[in-house]
Design brief:
Blueprint (H helix, E strand, L loop, with lengths): L4 H14 L3 H10 L16 H18 L14 H4 L2 H21 L20 E2 L5 E4 L6 E6 L5 E6 L3 E6 L9 E5 L1 E4 L2 E4 L4 E6 L5 E6 L4 E5 L4 E5 L6 E6 L5 E6 L4 E5 L5 E5 L6 E6 L4 E6 L4 E5 L7 E3 L6 E6 L5 E6 L3 E6 L4 E5 L3 E6 L8 E6 L9 E5 L4 E6 L6 E6 L5 E6 L3 E6 L5 E6 L4 E6 L5 E6 L4 E5 L3
Parallel strand pairs: 1-32
Antiparallel strand pairs: 2-35, 3-4, 4-5, 5-6, 7-8, 9-10, 10-11, 11-12, 13-14, 14-15, 15-16, 17-18, 18-19, 19-20, 21-22, 22-23, 23-24, 25-26, 26-27, 27-28, 29-30, 30-31, 31-32, 33-34, 34-35
Helix pairs in contact: 1-2
C-alpha cells in the first residue's frame, strides 16, 4: 500500500467541503495546490476520508483484541483518539472487566425489568415515513450540497460537487421524476469544458421561471426552467459562497471569497453595484428589502448595505469569530447572525440587540410566517460536546423554547414549513426529522442513504426535499 501527499491533501480538501467548511477548503486547496494534483474528483466517492479512517480503526481494533499470547479479548468500539493510544485502551479494558466481575458477584440477577431505566424505555410517538412516500432521485455523480423548491410548482433544484445543478419534476401529473442537467462550463481555448467545480448555491426567483446558481468557479448563472442557460455573471474573482434573489425578482445578490458582495441586474446579467467593505471572504447574504441587504464575513463583521450607497448604512460588530450565516425576519426588522464564537445574536433595527450564548453555530433560520417570525433557529455544529441538537428560540425573551435532541450527528440544515407549524431538520446521521414547532415533538422521521446537507419545503408545505453526501436527492410526501 502506498499513498502520496497529493492524495492525502485531496481527501482532506474533500472532507472540508463535505463538512460545509467551504472557505477553509478553498484556502487549503490553494495552499496545497489541489488544482495541480491531476486527481479526478468525480471518481472519488463521498466520505472517502472517513471511510479510510474507519477501516483503519477496524484493523487497529482487531490488532488490540488479540493479546500477546494469542488469546482473544473483547474490546469496546474504538474512537479515533483511542486508536493512537492502544496501551491505554488495553489497560482501561482490563479495569472494566475487573469491575464487571465485582459487580457480577455482588448483584444477584433478576428475571424482571427492575433494571430498565425510563430513558431506555422511551417510546417515540413519531411516525416513520413509509418507503412508498419517499422518492429517491439518482443522477448526481458526487455529493449534493444544496436543494431548493420552485415557489410556484413542484420542481426541485439541486446542486452538486459534480459541477452540475439539476431540475427534478416532482409534479403529481409527471409519470416519472425526469431530470434536467444544468452543466456548469467555462471557456477554454474557444470551447466550453466542464468547470469541475462545486455548485455552492442556488435560488429560484419569485415567479419560479428562473433559477440562479453560484459556483466555486467564480461565476453565477441564470437558467430557465427548461434547462437553457440565460446569463452568465462573471464579476467575482473567486468562489461564490452565497446567492439570493430579491423578492421583486429584478436583482440577484451574491457573496464571494474575493471579499465582495455584488448586486446583479437579472434582466441584463450586468453588475449593478459591487460592495467591497469586508476585509475577508464574505460568507452569506440576505435581502432586507428589494434594495437593501446584510452581509457577513470571516472578518467577524456584518454590514447592512443599500443600492446606490457607497458606504454601509449600518455595520455591526460584537462577534469574536467568523460569522457563518445571517437571516432577516420576513418584515426586515430583526437580523439574526450565528458565529463560531458560540453566540447567536439578534438585532432589531434600530431598537435592541440580543446575544444568546449557545454552542458553536453555523445555521440560523427565521420562520416565514408572521405568526412565528420571532422564532429563530440555531443548529449546533461540531460543538465541543458534539451536541447535534436543534433549538428554537423566543427572541423577545431570549429563551430557548425547545431543544430537539433526536439527531446523533451534526445538524447541517433546517427549514420551517410555509405555515410555521413544522420544522424539518437534516443531519449527517442520514436522518430527516419533522418536528412540531408548538410542542417540540418529533412527528415524522425518515432515514436516507447519506448524510443530509440540505432540507427544504415546497410551497404548499406537503413535501420535503433533501440532498445528501452520497449523491442522492430524495422527496418525502407528507400527505396522508
Amino acid at each position: 500500500m502506498s499513498f502520496t501527499s497529493d492524495e492525502v491533501n485531496f481527501l482532506v480538501y474533500r472532507y472540508l467541503q463535505e463538512s460545509g467548511f467551504y472557505h477553509a477548503a478553498y484556502v487549503f486547496g490553494i495552499e496545497s495546490h489541489i488544482s495541480q494534483s491531476n486527481i479526478n474528483g468525480a471518481l472519488v466517492p463521498p466520505a472517502a476520508l472517513l471511510s479510510i479512517i474507519q477501516k483503519g480503526l477496524q484493523y487497529t481494533e482487531a490488532e488490540i483484541s488479540i493479546g500477546e499470547d494469542g488469546s482473544e479479548r473483547l474490546i469496546d468500539s474504538l474512537s479515533l483518539i483511542d486508536a493512537v493510544m492502544p496501551d491505554v485502551v488495553a489497560s482501561r479494558q482490563q479495569q472494566n472487566q475487573q469491575q464487571k466481575a465485582v459487580v457480577k458477584t455482588e448483584i444477584p440477577s433478576t428475571n424482571g425489568d427492575e433494571g430498565t431505566t425510563g430513558e431506555n424505555m422511551d417510546v417515540d410517538n413519531s411516525v416513520e415515513i413509509p418507503l412508498n412516500k419517499a422518492t429517491i432521485l439518482r443522477g448526481h455523480e458526487s455529493e449534493v450540497f444544496i436543494c431548493a423548491w420552485n415557489p410556484t410548482t413542484d420542481l426541485l433544484a439541486s446542486g452538486s460537487g459534480d459541477s452540475t445543478a439539476r431540475i427534478w419534476n416532482m409534479n403529481d401529473n409527471s409519470t416519472s421524476p425526469n431530470q434536467l442537467v444544468l452543466r456548469h462550463c467555462i471557456q477554454k481555448g474557444g470551447t466550453e469544458v466542464p468547470s469541475n467545480k462545486d455548485v455552492t448555491s442556488l435560488d429560484w426567483n419569485c415567479d419560479g421561471n428562473l433559477l440562479a446558481t453560484g459556483s466555486y468557479d467564480g461565476y453565477a448563472r441564470i437558467w430557465m426552467t427548461d434547462g437553457r442557460l440565460a446569463s452568465t455573471l462573471g464579476q467575482h474573482k473567486g468562489p461564490i459562497f452565497a446567492l439570493k434573489w430579491n423578492k421583486k425578482g429584478n436583482y440577484i445578490l451574491s457573496a464571494g471569497v474575493d471579499k465582495t458582495t455584488i448586486i446583479w441586474d437579472a434582466s441584463s446579467g450586468h453588475c449593478t453595484q459591487q460592495f467591497a467593505f469586508h476585509s475577508a471572504p464574505a460568507l452569506d447574504v440576505d435581502w432586507q428589502s428589494n434594495n437593501s441587504f446584510a452581509s457577513c464575513s470571516t472578518d467577524q463583521c456584518i454590514h447592512v448595505c443599500q443600492l446606490g450607497e457607497n458606504r454601509p448604512i449600518k455595520s455591526f460588530q460584537g462577534h469574536t469569530n467568523e460569522v457563518n450565516a445571517i437571516k432577516w425576519d420576513p418584515q426586515g426588522n430583526l437580523l439574526a447572525s450565528c458565529s463560531d464564537d458560540m453566540t447567536l445574536k439578534v438585532r432589531a433595527i434600530p431598537f435592541f440587540s440580543l446575544s444568546i450564548r449557545t454552542e458553536k453555530t453555523y445555521i440560523c433560520y427565521c420562520s416565514e410566517s408572521g405568526e412565528s417570525c420571532v422564532n429563530i433557529h440555531c443548529a449546533l455544529h461540531f460543538s465541543a460536546s458534539f451536541d447535534s441538537t436543534v433549538r428554537l428560540w423566543d427572541v423577545e425573551r431570549g429563551a430557548c423554547i425547545h431543544t430537539l435532541t433526536k439527531h446523533s450527528e451534526p445538524v447541517y440544515s433546517v427549514a420551517f414549513s410555509p405555515d410555521g407549524k413544522f420544522l424539518a431538520s437534516g443531519s449527517f446521521d442520514k436522518c430527516v426529522h419533522i418536528w412540531s414547532t408548538q410542542t417540540g415533538q418529533l412527528v415524522h422521521s425518515y432515514k436516507g442513504t447519506g448524510g443530509i446537507f440540505e432540507v427544504c419545503w415546497n410551497s404548499r408545505g406537503d413535501k420535503v426535499g433533501a440532498s445528501a453526501s452520497d449523491g442522492s436527492v430524495f422527496v418525502l410526501d407528507l400527505r396522508k
